[in-house]
Amino acid sequence: MSRPALVVGWMAALGIAATAAAWSIAATLADTDHWTPEQLVVLSSMHINQLPPAQNDPSNAVDGKPEAIALGKQLFFDKRLSSNGAVSCASCHDPAKGYQDGLPRGRGTGLGNRRTMPVAGAGYSPWLFWDGRADSLWAQALGPLENPAEHGGTRTRYAQLVQAAYRDEYEKVFGAMPSLPVLPADASPSGTAAQRQAWQELDPASREAISRIYANMGKAIAAYEKTLRFGESRFDAYVGATLRGDPEAPRLLTEAEKRGLRIFIGEGRCATCHNGPLLTDQHFHNTGVPRLDPAHPDLGRSAATSVVANDEFNCLGRFSDAQSSQCEELAFMVKDDPLLVGAFKTPGLRGVATRAPYMHAGQLATLEDVVAHYRKAPRAQVGQSELARPRLSDEDARYLVAFLRTLDSPVTEHLAR
């Protein structure tokens, strides 16, 4: 089969009509950059326009509802949702920094153990956090609120705040707020000994009502977070122009950047895990990243499976809006694979150049350090690394870093979904 025929074939697979104009484009694609039809299919699959709308989460009945999005945005930026009145979701997920913080480890009311992950695109993942210990975006939103190093608050504190400051907004989304008795300022099933004792002293109906309000806060915040989307990067502009046969396409990236792109999808094997429009396979891998604390190794995914399975806010829990048949990811979760030991989630690479430092605890300072790590492919200090050493020269490494800097996707709100 001729090259134009192959190109028209993948155009048809992508829904592009194989008209006379398409044949003309196919011929034009024999351009100075010399991408093969197979490479063009890969490049097209990485374009941001190939990202479909995020599916509604069956465990969150208010996902996508404008009233929920509006409430979630208010909660996202409210610093009262913390023990010291100084930390909001936006403190670590800063809009000015692409909804992350640029720190090696997240800092809220204390210092966390891992880096803050960006929230744009998070609604496409079945597992949240670096280790996947939450199975929905709303369950993920709840974790930091009671974490002593992040927001440091308690669910009684939050329920009372919602009751006092957001009653009207809450009831527009979730219906009548339950009547609550006089509550202790801070009671939680996962807080200090005093907070846990105060929680146990509440009657079961009150604990249920408080936890319901708390879960609904997470659902509203998740509805807002799903409106955060990546825009087009220089890489996307180049791919789009190349697929259209635009004669200006070769000039949209430098030769070094295009060489880096070839390495990324070719001999560097980066696209094995960093694929699709979000440049992540959404899975967990051990890549031999050095341990932050040798005395206390972070086991990553292998330690998180029991956490998510026992989470009261998971898809099968009583606060979920899903039917059990809709919780297949949780029901069929892999728990005992030895490759999960020391494995962490593949981060998406959009905007990666603005998100130093790198890896799950900021162990690598620069993109150059990251590429050097993958070139060395060291043995894992815990678990078994999946890396195989690629044959890349120093010059190849510089090209690869140049390409990574083209993934400069802006993050913007899209409130009307």
From TrEMBL:
The chain positions of domain Cytochrome c read 67-178, 255-408
Annotated PROSITE patterns: CYTC
Q: What is its main location?
A: periplasm
**Where in or outside the cell?**
Periplasm
Please, which domain of life does this record's source organism belong to?
A: Bacteria
Q: Which UniProt keywords apply?
A: Heme, Iron, Metal-binding, Oxidoreductase, Periplasm, Peroxidase, Signal
Entry GO MF terms: peroxidase activity
* Signal peptide interval: 1-20
- In Swiss-Prot or TrEMBL terms, this protein is called Cytochrome-c peroxidase
